[in-house]
Model the fold of this input.
Amino acid sequence: MRLAFAVPLVFVLACADGFPDTATLDIGTSFDTSTSTSTSTSTTWSTTFDTTISVDSLTDGTTTSTTGTTTEDPTTGAPPSPARQYDLDDDGQPDTDLSLGTCTQSADLTCLRVGSDLVPVLEVSLGPLPDQCDGNLFGAPRITLIGDHDGDGLSEVAARHCRFDGVQGPPALAVVSLPAAAVSARADAPAVQDNAWSDDLRDPQGLLHPFLAPSYGDGENPLGDWGRLCVYRPDLPPGDGCGPGFSAISTLLAPGEFREVGGTLQDLDGDGWEDINLIYHRRQHTVSAATLALVNDLEYDVAAASEPQSPKWFHSGRNYGTHAAVVGGDGQQRLVVVGGAPVGSFGDDLCNVSRFLAVLESSPGQPATRKLAWSTYFSFSSSIFKTYDPVHAGDPMADVARLADAVDGCIHRYADSRTVMDGQEVLLVNYFAMDAPVDLCLDEQFALYQPPTWTDEKADAWYGCFAKNKQASGKWGMQVVDERTGQGLTGSQQTYVWGWSDQLRPGELVYLVEYLPPTTLWDLSDVAPSALQVQALEGGLWQSRGTFPVAGRPKLQQRVPTGAQGVGSYTSFAELTLHPGDPPGVELEDGTVIAHDPVRDAWIVR
Done:
């Protein structure tokens, strides 16, 4: 792939999928899915993100206190803040602490631990098994307040946990009434299901409805498909396969449809209820918690416009990366999809596997009008073979249908890539134009498909070989495209944009840009951090707003996908670590905080 003025040109030879779907768990942009509890339905945590963040959602950092306050943060083990965390009566004053942990009567039981100024309850049993997941419980924080559904004046609590029987740890979702000290509703994933996506959707009255949905791989589970999601509807009879208080919505599509990790929330039909966008390979499948029925199902091919001569679905329709549900300035409803890895993820040489930009669009309240408005395909990580016939084992190149792009066309995204230039809604991404691969590892990849296929030993050999391409040379640059049309608007080379904010120079959106040599290694391991340049983007051109006084790259937070900002894979939204104050500042990797002094119009160490 080579880029000319922000328009990717992709050379494609062919046809089949070069990765089995199960292999993508190793892509290196995964992260810890256990998060700090919050009174909202989203949360953040800070980490310096330089290589990979490992998936580890086995436990929820339990507390051992039996008193009215927790001794640890329920998900990180850190000391809690002195103030209460949750506002049960919605009067603006936090009055309750909540956490997940073992029950006082037995370490084998899981309880919601309570310390409250409003109720005398100390704990509520959630289930007879330890809270330990053997897969991933992805999405909303483990504990959320969902509003007063039963009219007792206090919010119900949604508590997400797992039920570990010594072998399996399937996810579960319980709704707890604290005044009654009881679980009023619950939904359990089937025992064979390791992975679930859960979030809280909003109804017209502002109440939240938690749900538990199948996640990665449902539809290809050899032990049986889950095939439904369970959404909290206490006003309806229990749904088939869901527990009391929960209604069922089918998620079982045609055979072979592959379920991605997460989804987004978006009122697609205009009824005031947020609908659930379930992400699959090559489709968005949208269902309604109001009607318990299908709202829209759209199949789309993000590579067709860029590679019209390529056989369809050579990329399997992978829908990884970020999915942002937004309403554009023109009133159109959009899903903005960025098939890339978070900025700074230089440990992920597979770079989302499938690299693309795409926008789905529909008219307000008219889900049937949803369409793929535009897409631009950049590249695909691995080689694709025609037949995988053992006769080619000695010369895999003879069977190549499409040669690997490796790190060529790799996209790095800040947050969801959405920003504004000259009053226009745009997408800005970093991309890499590779000079040549270090090693395409054809022998190692071809061997994966020869019996016995995809053994750990073969996979380790191939991934280890392919990772050499982190050291491929080339050029990092950025490009800006019109969110509405996908048209390329501007770009720059020898630059890497680490992020942007309108808080650092109040009233102006500025970008933190690292200027790079003409040629670098993909992972920038040959480039010492320099002083970041602060730039505005006006008229399609960088406009200098000064230089940081010290060298260093920013410390990035990884925000959990939830609500309207979702993801198709185990990834996150990378964001700058900002510090409020006068003046506000941004933190670098070494802990230095840089701020703008408006009196001197200079950047200073705060």
